[in-house]
Specification:
With 278 residues, this protein is α+β, with helices and mostly antiparallel strands. It has 11 helices and 14 strands. A hairpin with a 2-residue loop joins strand 9 and strand 10.
Length: 278
């Protein structure tokens, strides 16, 4: 399906016309996928979305049958979310705009505000979607666990951010072996992950043959060495100040771009609402 067809499907659902501006803007429409692609989803218990900059581990070790049975929304980060295919959940965003106005009442903006600018507001994972999904009328049972390696993009070494409490943990490298993904610390201990999120990290174009295993080190995929010694892991864990400075400058530029693309208007409306609510 091409990009224009997705835009047509979005406009067939909404009571106002939208332009999707750029492929990255589609992140704000991910919570509508259950409606946009409903003709594909009739026979499925769940629908969802994920990013393309992921290395998958064994999801069945984390999203178990018990999790699928007892929860309606699995995870809350835009790089992977699953939603139970129920009308109250699938229709939640559009119904809120047309009937309930929860988002406007709690945050001072509507989905029309979010969809009307080229600014990607991270509606797929931020407080706006949570404000809708947490309403008693929906009563979605949320499964919020830190199962992923969400790698900090401003550092060359691997620092994983826990999205629940914003704590950080360092790993020297990751190993993928027969479908299982693990992060290894400097002391040799390791932790299994559902997936690794390589957000805004440019990996070198190094081919790894399908030998059932490979390593992920800063900016590279490599074959598993016969020996992984402490010298190698220390090198992989070293800071790179020039890399960090370059990344921080990039994100400063990105923040200014977001402001001019509509993020400033969105934040202003939210601030005015907060002020009036006091």
């Amino acid at each position: 399906m091409d990009y224009n067809e997705v835009e047509k499907r979005v406009n067939s659902l909404l009571p106002f016309k939208v332009k999707m501006y750029s492929p990255y803007k589609i992140t704000d429409y991910k919570p509508l996928y259950g409606k946009i692609f409903s003709d594909y989803l009739k026979e499925y218990d769940f629908w969802g979305f994920c990013d393309v900059d992921l290395i998958w581990g064994n999801l069945a070790h984390f999203i178990t049958h018990d999790v699928l049975k007892n929860y309606d929304r699995i995870y809350s980060r835009g790089h992977l979310e699953l939603f139970r295919n129920l009308p109250k959940i699938t229709n939640a965003v559009i119904d809120d705009y047309s009937k309930y106005h929860t988002l406007e009442n709690t945050m001072g903006v509507s989905i029309k505000d979010i969809f009307s600018h080229s600014y990607a507001a991270h509606f797929d994972e931020g407080p706006h979607l949570q404000a809708i999904m947490s309403q008693p009328r929906i009563n979605a049972r949320n499964y919020i666990h830190y199962d992923m390696a969400d790698i900090k993009s401003t550092k060359k070494q691997f620092i994983c951010i826990n999205p629940i409490d914003n704590s950080e943990e360092a790993f020297a490298y990751f190993k993928w072996e027969n479908g299982v993904l693990s992060g290894y610390r400097l002391d040799g201990t390791f932790k299994e992950f559902a997936y690794a999120h390589l957000q805004k990290i440019k990996m070198s174009e190094q081919t790894v043959k399908d030998e059932g295993a490979f390593l992920i080190i800063p900016n590279k995929f490599i074959k598993v060495p016969s020996v992984i010694d402490s010298t190698s892991t220390k090198v992989w864990s070293e800071e790179d100040k020039d890399y960090e400075k370059s990344k921080l400058n990039y994100f400063k530029w990105l923040r200014f771009k977001h402001i001019f693309n509509g993020g400033g208007i969105l934040r202003l409306k939210e601030k005015i609402h907060q002020y009036r609510a006091k």
